[in-house]
């Protein structure tokens, strides 16, 4: 555990912050290193990933950053396929400086053009038989990697009663939750999503809050693990991120803000429960936006009143970017929940 | 294997006669299987088969080593060949390869159920041999010699100190942070009490999911030892036992688990290469002995063999 030189293992390890008497935050610098490193380690050990080979993935987020850093350090070629609507020039330039090739395909509909991205990825895979696709959406290695986070939380907290985290690929929350629930079968798992993400039955649409939610459904999202789902709009997430900095000195991204907002409410609602919340990344990438007053002032309807409690929905529906809603999921499958919704 | 740091005290050369110590005795304790056993990653990312032993101080093996001028080590009972090998390796470790002696072993530990009778004989023999040269070996040296003598060993050289021990390498993967908490263990034998030939067992092949789960169990065991929490320890043991069911199933394990749950026990542990099952209770808890009696009766009624109540790490004088 200690005294060993391994930069990326250290960088993937969260710092724990106590936000209240019963709430511990696992604040990551770059959480996606955990699955990226595990996926590459296992693929190397199994011979699926050969020295100097070509790695591909479709991502516009921090998983791409994690892969870029590891590929640079381990001598792999890396191609990241994204959509022009999803990646800003600064982030693209940063990935390219690390050595990654970034292909940003056209996105005329503005929905991320996932089919187009997958076509592009398949073309690359066909052209190079040694090419390795990390498959963060459906590889079980994504969620298996989070045993490290579960171990880390257990060493620090012992029994965990409630786990709160964002959901995008499902890896972090469903992985950590699977392992913790094996230990503690009564563990309550609370997922944090955003309006117009399709993961928990909302219709697809334009999402302002990036880094959580999805317009496609990854296999690593395990609905039957989830007790409760919250949809947080961009504005409450931004304000919660600001509060993390002001009240706790934690400089985290807006998805961490969304997770903290929900977790603080959960911890207040269940004062006898030990609550853990996963905060996926730091605020640096958002310095010119979420942490920039001019950028914020230009947002329609900003500032809004920060909701202190979520609105409980009986029917799943989208809301505005200033709202926060929740729905009691009760460890059901997506189909089961959707069936009850259509009856109404 | 001999290094200056391994020997706590430099031995004198073997005397050619005279009054110096010529007879050494050594004891070693049994165990009641393991609290956790699986595959674990070290700091370098390498995987090791390792375990956390549940020590059982009441059952012991005692060895006596008498230095002789013979050129070989002789052992009684004669079939304790691993113990004799351990004595030879100890002599080599002490710097006297090929020295002779008479080793005798008297053990109260039943064979073939997961009580670790073989390792206890080996460890007692190592300690007796070293004692005949006025040397007290460290637990790390004893463990390495034991593994060299018998291929796979357990962690009883560490007595009540909880360690995650690589049983085929003789090294500690993690010191869990002190002694185990005081426990009551209601132990019994599954599978009709039939012994298992541990030498014929092939090592379990664990899935990626099991290996990742072991990581979390290790964290839980470490937390449990550090905070002296028998319930967290029992939880880690139960999950390890459930994984073991996929590899070396014990009949009616789920009945034992049900008895444990119904009686508010901390958990259930097994001998991962034996027939033992143990239901774990918090010895410091009020009413623990009544719980143990109720559990023992339930286990007997269901048909488990040789039901016994063991005290683990009880403080002296209590």
TrEMBL record, chain A:
Its cofactor is pyridoxal 5'-phosphate. InterPro entries: Cys_Synth/Cystath_Beta-Synth, TrpB-like_PALP, TrpB-like_PALP_sf. It comes from the Bacteria. Keywords: Pyridoxal phosphate. GO terms for biological process: alpha-amino acid metabolic process. This is Cysteine synthase A. Pfam families: PALP (PF00291). Residues 32-280 form the Tryptophan synthase beta chain-like PALP domain.
From TrEMBL, chain B:
InterPro entries: GHMP_kinase_N_dom (IPR006204), PduX (IPR012363), Ribosomal_Su5_D2-typ_SF (IPR020568), Ribsml_uS5_D2-typ_fold_subgr (IPR014721). Residues 84-156 form the GHMP kinase N-terminal domain. Residues 1-24 are annotated as: Disordered. Pfam families: GHMP_kinases_N. GO terms for molecular function: ATP binding; kinase activity. Keywords: Kinase, Transferase. Transmembrane segments: none annotated. The keyword Transmembrane helix does not apply. SUPFAM superfamilies: Ribosomal protein S5 domain 2-like. This is Threonine kinase.
